[in-house]
């Protein structure tokens, strides 16, 4: 199968989906590729800042996202040894200090609006396998597998919005510099206890940052910094003393923590690093969303 488009975007996360929508609104034909069966997936780090909120409002998308569900943060707190030491509240002209937006809500709104446009096409269950070059070395298309069958997409512009492990970047041979930040992150999620205010709570635990992010749907997401590369050794240690540090700092969570975080397997490990490229572009390919090397 072969199709043609003005722009082919690989990856339907917020960046790729919103870019596809904006291009399609300008009557530029866009094919958006997504390797999964749908865009409704669970993510971490789903918080929207003031700038992101402003962009969605400008595009008329924010009310639709709000209808699906979001949660405005009422305060940011800093805790030490189980005691609140500092609180930050919104300025008088603001109603939040950040908004939790489930990413499946955000993506549903963007994609639903884009699909109203004839110039937009979403291809699900479609995994890019290679880039196509012409005789002059210009990238001019994408090879992919859609529902297991080979697909050729001819496009004069290919945009890689497929994350830090981007297949587009690798196939275009755009070099990347990986920068570690000295820590990794343990994630877990528990129900919020009754009366829990929409907030972001921070504490230092033995010099490492522990943060609680309140989420829409009555949940709390826990982000706990650990030394980079230390998780394999940490798992060999008894679990109870580790989790008691969380309970000591936030005693009101004791019941929920003990019920929902009972072993190391209840955490998800996130390898924290950032990547930088010397260029975002190469012969018809654009790598979307990575900062340049200064």
Highlighted features:
D-Amino Acid Oxidase, Chain A, domain 2; FAD/NAD(P)-binding domain; 2 domains; 8 helices; single chain; alpha/beta; 294 residues; 7-stranded mixed beta sheet; 6-stranded mixed beta sheet; disordered C terminus
Structure write-up:
The chain has 294 residues and is α/β, with parallel strands linked by helices. The chain has two domains: 131 residues, FAD/NAD(P)-binding domain (3-Layer(bba) Sandwich); 89 residues, D-Amino Acid Oxidase, Chain A, domain 2 (2-Layer Sandwich), CATH 3.30.9.100. It is 23% helix and 37% strand. The protein contains eight helices and 22 strands. Strands 7-6-16-17-18-15-19 form a seven-stranded mixed beta sheet, covered by helices on one side. A six-stranded mixed beta sheet has the order 9-3-2-13-22-21. Helix 1 runs parallel beside helix 4. It is globular, with a radius of gyration of 22 Å.
Unreliable spans are: 290-294
Q: What's the rounded overall pLDDT mean?
A: 92
Number of helices: 8
Q: What is the CATH topology assignment of the largest domain?
A: FAD/NAD(P)-binding domain
- Radius of gyration, in Å, reads 22 Å
Give the strand tally.
22
Class from helix and strand fractions: alpha/beta
- Structural domain count: 2
